[in-house]
Sequence to fold (316 residues):
Amino acid sequence: MSRKAAVVALTALAPISWGSTYFVTTEFLPADRPLFTGLMRALPAGLLLLALTRKLPQGAWWWKSAVLGALNIGAFFPLLFLAAYRLPGGVAAVVGSVGPLFVVGLAALFLGDKPTAKSLITAVAAAFGVSLVVLKAGAALDLVGVIAGLLSSLSMSAGVVFTKRWGRPEGVGALALTGWQLTAGGLVILPIAFLIEGAPPALTGTNLAGYAYLAFGNTAISYFLWFRGIERLSASSATLLGPLSPITAAIIGWAALGQALGPVQVAGMVIAFGATLVGQLGPRTPKKPEAVESFTSPEQNGQELSMDLEDSGVRR
Fold:
């Protein structure tokens, strides 16, 4: 397996993991507490990574981490949950699947990556494939929900582009940077969750197991792999891995919850997955604009995944 293929495979584990969120939320967590769930996903994971790496931002990275944490986590989660509550699940997923199109535009503006016919076609094909997988006949639209869904997708897309633009400071690994963002994002969600939803609910052992999975497997590890992948892939290639999330959710729903999965849904999976594969084809090393700040990349140094942990300051 080539180095790029290995990076793509590891990065793809993040959206695949996120595809399990719906199942875990409905089967393991208390109902109607989306903001508290977002808080429990982000803040414990961020604090754990801070404890492991024992690195804090320096200088400009205090505000950069806050911006990235707000875009990738703090704004994204509440907007996503608002869309999920105002729209049927399938409609919310389709609205969110326009992310690759946002990334194409933002990458042209902030990274100097000129849009190509391939990037536009694959982004549209991915959204179309996702729509076949998740849309149901007679799905209703809600203006507030649609706007919230579009803003959540725009927030995450901007987070991808600025993560790519700023890189990370020299001597700081992806694990530490992930911890900074999750902590910042969790602190953004904290007051919103308590103002809107009130005090935390009483939790059962099943609830705690679900939150533990979401915080550490679904968030800490997955976002580490995601941010690490963004460094090594182009912004559009990384975002085109996103359709793996609704595909995974549909497969889990079919296998574990007995949800229908007919020929149309299977065709949508094939289209979305095909667009994801095509989106990974291209130059091994994407061109970086002059405006991108320099940073030490473990891949550039010929290091493997294990070196990321050392660079992040994990004490063994």
In short: The chain has 15 helices and no strands. Residues 284-316 have pLDDT under 50 and may be disordered. The radius of gyration is 19 Å. Residues 178 and 224 are 6 Å apart (CA to CA).
